[in-house]
Amino acid sequence: MGEPIAIIGSSFGGERGASYVTIAGAQPIGAAYMEWGDSVIRLRVPELGEAGLVRVHVGGRRSNGVLFASRDAIPAAAPGGRAGIAPSISAVSPAAAPVGGAVTITGSGFGGSRGPGGGVFFTLEGRGPRGEMEAIEVSRAELGYELWTDGEIRVRVPDGAASGHVEVRTARGRSGPAPFAVSAGPGSRSFADRRSFVISYSVDIRTGGARPPNALHLWVPFPAESAAQRNPEMLFSSPEPFIRDYLGTVLYRLDDLGAHAFAGVSLSWAVDALGVRTSVRPQDIGPPSPSPARDANLAACPRLPADDPLIRGLAASIAGAEPNPYLRARMIYDWMLSGVEWVGRARGDELGAAAERRADPFLGALLYASLLRASGVPARPVAGVIVSRDRQAASHHWAEFWIDGLGWIPADPAMGAGAVPEAFAWPWDPPDGPGPGGAAGFFFGNLDSRRIAFSRGFTEIRQMDPRGLPVTHVRSYALQTLWEEAVGGLDAYFSLWGDIIVVDGG
Q1: CA-atom Rg of the chain in angstroms
Q2: pTM for this one?
């Protein structure tokens, strides 16, 4: 960022005038332009993310797009002639830390930045379907990477990690495993009842008026990887994705669609879902440890208004002066079951749900996460589908909250209150109930394995072109800010996002 680049081509015009350049959808300010000629443009790079398209806009027309990436996102050969040599770990400090704790890995050959294919992996709690040990990567979405240099990496122990080993993986290979222990926390979690699902879904497009050049971007969610949801694998995609993993979505780009034409995408995924069982010793929960992820999951945002006076006052009236975050989470959960009227579909937003004491699973998950954040408990909503015994999938929303040293604890107040269709109300095997406390007790701290999560928290997706026409979906199987964007001469189109179809498993 801020460094000069040259764009070489033709028909740019002899002077800039009203013409301009966009890089990853960002338009540089006038002072960034150093030279504008018919075949060469020189300018300084504006602030942008890791990568995006460069386009030149002249006289209402735009050039083809060329992919441009921040140098920090590109893997580079390590200094000292070690190109092609796998990374090596010399020390891990401390040798034991709790879930969420900071760990420093020293060694060599890590590369100047994490880069594509790079990551730090810890032993994952539980074993695979054939009894093998599994690994979980440090979470990028949870700000788990704090530093990456050729000789030192600083990370946070990911949710779901267990005592065993840690290793570094890069495009040049994998390090040898280094021993690492996960410190005992204020309780334990287990993952069981693995179910393997194969799902398919599609987006159908029908255009109205259209003229070239135009493009339609589609951000299609895929199953989110976590300790309770493992091995997501794309089995089929038509057409080929523009970007296979863009913030937890598959990004498709449909170029130059004709008028009154049909187009679309279809894809299928395989994923393993596991049930979660949690046992917590509230008396062993210590004071909170500061971290970027903790701050991010306490902050208010448009759909989680934790700073609104109504939400703050309601949270205080429910939890009172209780200092323990786990007990506060349970008190608010119990209030959600007894103090809220649950309906199939509620109107309004989460503030309306708080004021009227009326919610559905979608608003209930947002309200619960908002109340937790307002009471100082890091929390986030989760979106996905639940799967009935006859493989019917229905959109559903629940939540999870963070306890230091233990990780993300699930809670599904809608399921606990029985506010789901009868076919989905008893998803466990055998069908003899969840044990003491019934559904209300089970769905605080525990989850079944008949669900597939597509987003954990809100995924912030920005437009590809600042002049594009964005489309968002509010009540769906994923929580993301952008789903579609029409750019250029696509004057009118109709999109139909199909339901999740469970092809196999369950």
Answers
A1: 25
A2: 0.81
